[in-house]
Amino acid sequence: MSDSSSVTHLAQLLHSRVQDGQRVRFTVTPDWLQGRTTFGGLLSLLAVQAMRDVCGANWPLRALQTNFVGPVVAGHFYADIILLRQGKNIRQVQCHVTQEDADGNIQVGGVLLGVFGTGRDSTLPALMPQMPEVSKTVDEAMLLPFIPGLTPDFTQHLEFRFGEGGLPFTGAADWFSRTYLRLRQAQGIDAELMSVLLSDAGPTPALARLNRPAPASSVSWALELRPITDDVAHDSIWRMDKDALAVGEGYVNERTSLWTPSGQLAALGYQVVAVYA
């Protein structure tokens, strides 16, 4: 971990937001960056919080689509919220993330669409996927260190334990990874926001095929969420399963399954990742 004086916990970022009508201002500190831009999972989480602030937090988030348009650097950025439509059961909300650059020009950092929906009575039987086993338990899995200047800055906020698959840049033959993870300081963060953050926390497993480091960047991200019915302790460990589905021309199509500490499916994510190698 870095010097604690330079670390801003997620709850602090949320507490410092300022709402003005349909606009919410956030301030991101450098310890939450991924390269030159804000960690995508954090950016999406903050956008969801802005949607809740403006349109209400009474309905669970069912789906989130994020297009990462441009870098969002450390400092202030704005989330402008538009309620596109609200029916009896479904609310669709758009968020534009913007930031002023060094020359005073407004740049678009992201465009997001959130779908919130109430539960309904249904004659369909329930289908509850079971979390598959991996070869290593949490206690057996290797704890991955945070190395300043080598691993992304935001990873100092997370604990990663590698359970199965290939590690990035090791020339492994695997196209998948199974990782145990948790947010180190999770007090005050509800399970829905946690699902958004953790679903984007790991690198594409395709990087395991490379023999040396190379940059990668998410282009678009579609996240489908399931309401979490279990109580989740703030220090609990979740599991993130990632699979590369198709790779070519410098792009990876991948799927992520996020499981709660008790093994309940929390989210399914689909990403297009650009790999510069």
Kindly describe this structure:
This protein is 11% helix and 42% strand. The protein has a single domain, classed as Acyl-CoA thioesterase, double hotdog domain (Porin, Beta Barrel), CATH 2.40.160. Strands 1-2-6-7-8-5-12-15-14-13-11-10-9 form a 13-stranded antiparallel sheet, covered by helices on one side. Strands 3-4 form a two-stranded antiparallel ribbon. With 277 residues, it is mostly beta strands. The chain is globular, with a radius of gyration of 18 Å. It has helices at 10-15, 40-55, 191-199, and strands at 18-20, 23-28, 33-34, 37-38, 61-68, 75-86, 90-100, 106-117, 142-144, 158-165, 176-183, 216-225, 238-248, 251-259, 265-275. The longest helix is centred in the first third of the chain and has 16 residues, at 40-55.
Features:
two-stranded antiparallel ribbon; mainly beta; 277 residues; single chain; 11% helix; globular; Porin
